[in-house]
Amino acid sequence: MKQTLLCVLALSLWGCAATASLEATHPLSIPLAGHPVAMLEVHGADPKYDETVRIVEAKLAAHLLQEKIFRSVVTDPEPTVTPSISIDVEVVDDHEVSGTERVLFGTFAGQGAVTLNVEITEPPGGEGICSLRVSGKSSGGTAFSGTTSQAIDQAVDKLVSYFHDHM
User: Fold this and answer.
1) Pairing state of beta strands 113-122 and 85-95?
2) In the chain, what are the domain boundaries?
3) Sheet holding 37-44, edge to edge
4) pTM (two decimals)
């Protein structure tokens, strides 16, 4: 009985680490250092991603400013300043796992995951300078694994790290 209990406990604690990946389908062709103001637009491929869109936009804008990638990040469709670069992010996939689901279903809730398609252009002509596909996954496989929010954090961190490396 004790062995079975220990085995179940061990299996519920053994899992996967949170991860992120980035594929540059069209790598950044110019350095970002010459672009002080970025226009950030985040949208979903499906209306069911609206909450994820809101979270990605807030976290990405804050992280870009925190890391000083840009002096200003504009999310208003009619900005009062002229952006020198445009970042278009589309949420194309989202496997939501909430904290409640994690508590109720534990390991069986799966991993939270998010996939973003990112297009970077230079206005006014909208010439494409970069296309990326970024994925984030929460930790998984245990009763104490992460949620979709952790997956979003992973994806945003990976994207900002890419920008930071190409300053």
Assistant:
1) antiparallel
2) 18-165
3) 19-26, 127-137, 113-122, 85-95, 37-44, 72-74
4) 0.80
